[in-house]
Specification:
185 residues; alpha/beta; five-stranded mixed sheet; 5 helices
């Protein structure tokens, strides 16, 4: 499940990955909340919809766009709050959550980490062989997040396995050093 968090528009998508880079779009939508509503009501609306999606689609993993600092601190704060609500809902269901930066997503989908929204939308449409472009851009971004994660997941898993192996080797090495130091006394 890919999520492009936001308070005004929160993009949601579910895709299925196949062999290699094959991906199929299953569902996409955008949750909209009125800017004039109190923050807690907006977050509740996002939470309710996301929880419904998680309970309906039962995703294996959630890919959420990582908030980055931009000129508008209020926008970044709202995006982070929406992302937090989504991560919390996933944690309650024991669903793995991965965060991807906008440039990671753009690079994965278009080959260019500085691609514009039109390029991302065009490539998402092509990759998923959609009949029409997903709109608004938040829907395309949610699909792009899901695609990015599916394509990066094998590398992420290999990195985690390598880190775990390195940690285990470090423990063994420290135990060997400790045993040699004890024997030398």
């Amino acid at each position: 499940m890919g999520v492009d968090p936001g308070l005004t528009r929160c993009g949601l998508s579910v895709i299925e990955s196949g062999r290699g880079r094959q991906v199929i779009a299953l569902d996409v939508d955008v949750v909209r909340t009125p800017a004039g509503d109190p923050l807690q009501h907006r977050l509740l609306a996002i939470s309710d919809t996301v929880e419904y999606w998680m309970d309906t689609h039962i995703p294996d993993v959630i890919a959420i766009e990582r908030v980055f600092a931009n000129q508008n601190a209020n926008t970044a704060m709202g995006t982070a709050q929406a992302g937090g609500v989504i991560a919390l809902a996933a944690a309650r269901r024991d669903i793995d959550v991965h965060f991807h930066t906008p440039s990671e997503v753009k690079a994965a989908v278009t080959g260019n980490g500085r691609a514009d929204k039109a390029q991302v939308t065009e490539m998402v449409t092509r990759i998923l062989a959609l009949q029409q472009k997903p709109t608004p851009a938040d829907a395309a971004d949610a699909l792009a997040l899901a695609i990015c994660h599916c394509w990066r997941a094998p590398m992420i898993a290999r990195m985690a396995a390598a880190e775990a192996m390195a940690a285990e080797q470090q423990k063994k090495f420290q135990a060997t050093l400790k045993a040699k130091a004890k024997a030398a006394r």
